[in-house]
Amino acid sequence: MKHKLLTAIVLGFFAFTANAQTADEIIANYFENTGGLEKWKTIEGMKMSAKLNQGGMEIPLEIIQLKDGRQATIINLQGRVIKQGVFDGTDLWSDNFMTQKAEKSDAETTENFKLSIGDFPDVFLNYKAKGYTVELAGKETIEGTETFKVKLTKKQIKVDGQLTDDVSFYYFDTENFVPLVVEAEVKSGPAKGQVSQIKFSDYQEVSNGVLMAFSLAQGVKGGPSQPIAVTAIEVNPAVDAATFKYPEGQ
After folding, report:
1. 238 located within any domain
2. Quick one: signal sequence residues (predicted)?
């Protein structure tokens, strides 16, 4: 009887161990299931074409990101071209929707942005080398799907001159190991104190064989979200440097 009981305990332990996951293993499975690390490492730039649904109106936009940190979101709003979140390698700037003039971000916002330059093409790529830590915070069911909740802690950022922890939570599908939701506390602005939420779905293969989400929805947790439908993702596109240049002399 004792022998049988011991055998059952041992088998139960190994069954539990086989099913257990660490945050590191979840991330490794994520990259493996979306094309493999080697393919992810070949990405030097991306150009995403998408449509933003705002109040029933579809607004075309283009998001360009390069490995050196340069980026731009280009919005076509009823014939007007508006650029948002543009980084030229030194300055972070956006067009003001009201005045249609380019405005540079303040020093704190720019410095916080520079801390994340190494996160392209994925925040979890080489996360240990960047000094980031990950922690499995349990499981949660998101809209009927069981997920692993992974806590990601990056380098501290500044908020009103004070160093503040930069923490976000990623919810990975327990079956496919792809992120379905990411949440983080809003540190400043009108939504300060609320939790931002981005949902990902419709993973498709892009030109280099990597799988990426083609459907996104962003907003605050518990509130309305803004859907974004991606129509195409081009990997390693040719991009004119003038795309990121701040328009001097306005």
Report:
1. yes
2. 1-20
